[in-house]
Amino acid sequence: MSVLLLEGIDVLGRTAVTIDPSPAHVVGTGGAIGAVLRYVTTQRVSERLSSERVPLATVAVNVIGSFVLGLVVFAGAGGSTLRLVGTGICGSFTTFSSFSVETVRLYERGDRVPAVATAAVTLACSLAAIGLAWLLVAATAL
């Protein structure tokens, strides 16, 4: 929880206030960064790979986010770095809720094969991205 700390009164008689950079601030900063990155990535993917039957932009952000989170975790990041990159940036960059809604919408409108394929591809590619991150971190540790 963020706390405002009153530091006292300066030479001009003003009350000095500082903000404790608590974990919530770190996560919030990361969340803002991740949300903007997600927006930009979604726009770029949609411009280049438009598909009405498969939510390619959502698949892309989830796979990229899985890779980045894998790198951070397997590299041994902890504390503020994990909160900033893992919870904040990757948490807002990736989107399980959009993935779920888009998959169900595909299924409901009769696009059952693309719905199941989207779910399978997202899971398989996200796991593969995490595996690739693990391999990269392991290879650089040698």
Q: What does it look like?
A:
The chain has 142 residues and is mainly alpha-helical. The protein has one domain. Helix content is 72%, strand content 8%. It is built from five helices and two strands. The chain has helices at 23-48, 56-74, 79-93, 96-108, 112-140; strands spanning 4-9, 15-19. Strands 1-2 form a two-stranded antiparallel sheet. A hairpin with a 5-residue loop joins strand 1 and strand 2. The two termini are 40 Å apart. Belongs to the fluoride channel Fluc/FEX (TC 1.A.43) family. Keywords: Cell membrane, Ion channel, Ion transport, Membrane, Metal-binding, Sodium, Transmembrane, Transmembrane helix, Transport. One of its GO terms (molecular function) is fluoride channel activity. It catalyses: fluoride(in) = fluoride(out). Fluoride-specific ion channel. Important for reducing fluoride concentration in the cell, thus reducing its toxicity.
Main features:
single chain; 142 residues; mainly alpha; two-stranded antiparallel sheet; 5 helices; 2 strands; globular; disordered N terminus; transport; metal ion binding
* Major beta sheet, strand line-up: 1-2
Q: Give the fraction of residues assigned to helices.
A: over 70%
Low-confidence stretches: 1-10
- The H-and-E topology, N to C, reads as EEHHHHH
Total DSSP E strands: 2
What is the structural class? mainly alpha
Morphology: globular
Radius of gyration: 20 Å
Overall number of structural domains: 1
Mean pLDDT, all residues: 87
**Beta-strand content bin:** 5-15%
Distance between the termini: 40 Å
| Total of DSSP H or I helical runs spanning 4+ residues | 5
Main sheet makeup:
2 strands, antiparallel
